[in-house]
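Protocol step 4 of 5: obtain the predicted structure for the target chain.
Materials: sequence only (see below). No template structures provided, no constraints applied. The aim of this step is simply to have a reference model before the mutagenesis design in step 5. Sequence pasted as it appears in the construct record:
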Amino acid sequence: MSSLQNKVIWITGASSGIGEALVYECAKHNAKIILSARRESELIRVSKTANLNASDFFILPFDLSDTTNAKELTQQVISKFGRIDILINNGGQSQRAEAIETSTETERTLFEINYFSAVNLSKAVLPFMLKNKSGKIVVISSIAGKFGFYLRSSYSAAKHALHGYFESLRLEVEKKGVSVLLVCPGKVKTNVSLNAISSSGDSHNKMDESHEHAMSAQECAQQIITGILNEKEEILIGGKELLAVKIKRFLPKLFGKIIRKQSPY
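Step 4 output (structure tokens):
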């Protein structure tokens, strides 16, 4: 993909963090952007900060915990722009709770937000991409999709599931003009830990120390855009924490010793 100019790009979780930064980066490339998240007022703020022309963006608020109306949402985008070139499944919610203390209801919520929303939206968008024989689905996973970690059981499980699903989907659609990019951020300075779900289902409401001095959301977004333009299939983004992925693969016993010494926060 040589350029994002005039590409129709749908971004979920666009009201903050990586999603907000992606809006700004896509705006620099003169793309047409659909901004989605729960809070419409924040989406309006982001669109104004990005200095988007009225004809170049569409605010479409909804809650990722219920995407049973994915086809209807997609039809609204098609009615506005006539096509969808790139879907970026960015929205999600992390976890800060031990598995034994996490209710089944909370586990299901985490899967709805982190897994089923991406699946439902992608399946709704795919028929239009396949018809045009062109399109890209971007899925923001996590290094938690590469290995489990303290207090992340259901979150990590949902991210692992994304890899299995979208790696399979890639094989099915790539010869029909549709590509899939999986993005695995490590530590990025966003509100992800503040908004993480606790065992009770409430927000963790604390900034993890490891995220305070992490990579900026802007830098993360820039690397995602580079991955899109370079037709990557998977990219890992972050700092030294990314070494854990390689260590786990090639030196699993050493990985086990290292991971047990890490702070959950």
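Step 4 remarks: The chain has one domain: 8-259. The radius of gyration is 18 Å.
Proceed to step 5.
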